């Protein structure tokens, strides 16, 4: 159950980051060049897919009664963390889910 909680939070943060990078302004802030239209579209689709995965993880962790409520909280928390990191450490803000994913896998293995 705890792994589902962290998976939901990680997916919510990654989804918000992908949606953020789907905007020209933020993509340029992080990578110093404008994205192609295909990159913008792919990032937006990935962002929505990651948010859907986050929703599924929250429903798996808390059930249908509290899962959607927990998901809204996790999306809010992920967006707030991104909001705090993006102005000061834009590359860290974007790469954080990449570094956190192996840790999440390790937690899943430890929990059995």
Automatic annotation (TrEMBL):
Alphabetical keyword list: Membrane, Transmembrane, Transmembrane helix
Annotated TM spans: 46-64, 92-110
InterPro entries in UniProt: DUF3325 (IPR021762)
Protein name: Iron uptake protein
């Amino acid at each position: 159950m705890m792994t589902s909680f962290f998976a939901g939070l990680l997916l919510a943060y990654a989804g918000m980051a992908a949606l953020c990078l789907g905007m020209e302004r933020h993509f340029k802030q992080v990578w110093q060049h404008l994205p192609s239209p295909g990159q913008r579209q792919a990032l937006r689709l990935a962002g929505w897919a990651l948010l859907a995965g986050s929703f599924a993880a929250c429903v798996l962790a808390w059930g249908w009664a509290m899962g959607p409520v927990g998901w809204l909280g996790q999306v809010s928390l992920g967006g707030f963390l991104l909001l705090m990191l993006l102005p000061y450490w834009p590359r860290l803000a974007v790469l954080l889910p990449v570094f956190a994913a192996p840790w999440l896998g390790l937690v899943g293995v430890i929990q059995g």
